[in-house]
Amino acid sequence: MDYPGTGVKQPEVSIDLNSVDGFYSSDFQTFQNTSTPMMTGYDAPNGSISSPTGQISANAYRRTNAGAAGKFMENNGFGWLLEVNEEDQDQIPLLEELDIDLTDIYYKIRCVLLPLPYFRMKLNIVRESPDFWGPLAVVLAFAILSLYGQFGVVSWIITMWFCGGFMVYFIARALGGDVGYSQVLGIVGYCLIPLVVTSLVTPLISGFRLLSNALGMFGTVWSVYSAGTLLCVDELQAKKPLVVYPVFLLYVYFYSLY
C-alpha cells in the first residue's frame, strides 16, 4: 500500500460522508495528472505536522496558571472556588439600592416647612408617597440636637416616634381615615423639621428665657399645623380637631425632651 508523499500516483478515492450525521465533512485532496506531486502535511520540510490554531478559554488559562494550590483544589473537587464570573454586571448606586431619593426628600421637607396654600405645594405627596429614610434622618437630627450629655434620649425619641405614630394611626383609623401606618410615621417624622429649626436657633437666644420658650412653642405649633394639614384626608376634615389633639400632645412631648 502506497502512502501520500511517496511520489506514487494514488488511485482516486471518493467517500461520501454527507449522508452520515455527526461526522465532520472534509475534502480529500487527490493527485492530478501532474508531473510534480503535491505536498501534504507528512511531507513538511522540517518534518513537523501543523497543529490547529485557536484561542484558549479564560477558564482553561486560569486553571493552567493556578499554581500548586489551585491544582490541588481542582484535583479535590474545589475548583469552583476559583471560578470568576466574567459577565459584566451594572453597578447600582448606593442611594438607588437603598431606595433613597434626595430630590423627593427635599421636596417633602419644603412641603412641611411651607404647608400654607399660598405656596401651592403638592402637600398630598408626603402622605401618598411615604418613605422611611427621610423621616428617620429628621428624627435622628432632632435626637442629636437633644443630646447635651443625654445619649439615652436618642433611642427614647426614636421609640416615641414609632409608638406615638402608631397611636396617631390608631386614632385616625378609628375615626374613619384611610391612612396607613407608614404614611403616619412619615408625616410625624417629617413634621419634626420645624422643631429641628427652632432647636438650632434656641441656643443663640438662651439668655432670653421667655423668648426661647416662645420660639419653642412656635416650632411646636408649626409642626402640629403641618402634620394636621398633611394627615387629615377628606374623611377626617370634619374630625380634624380629634386628630390634631393627639398630634399636639406628641410634639409637646418631643419639645419637652429637648
UniProtKB/TrEMBL annotation:
Annotated ranges, domain Yip1: 125-256
UniProt keyword annotations, A-Z: Golgi apparatus, Membrane, Transmembrane, Transmembrane helix
GO biological-process terms attached to the record: endoplasmic reticulum to Golgi vesicle-mediated transport; vesicle fusion with Golgi apparatus
GO cellular component, as recorded: Golgi membrane; trans-Golgi network
Main location: Golgi
InterPro entries referenced in this protein's UniProt entry, alphabetically: Yip1/4-like (IPR045231), Yip1_dom (IPR006977)
Subcellular location: Golgi apparatus membrane; Golgi apparatus, cis-Golgi network membrane
Membrane topology recorded in Swiss-Prot or TrEMBL: Multi-pass membrane protein
Ranges annotated as spanning the membrane: 130-148, 154-172, 184-205, 211-233, 242-257
One Pfam family cited in the UniProt record for this chain: Yip1
Homology family: Belongs to the YIP1 family.
Protein task: Involved in the maintenance of the Golgi structure.
Protein's name according to its UniProt entry: Protein YIPF
Organism: Caenorhabditis remanei
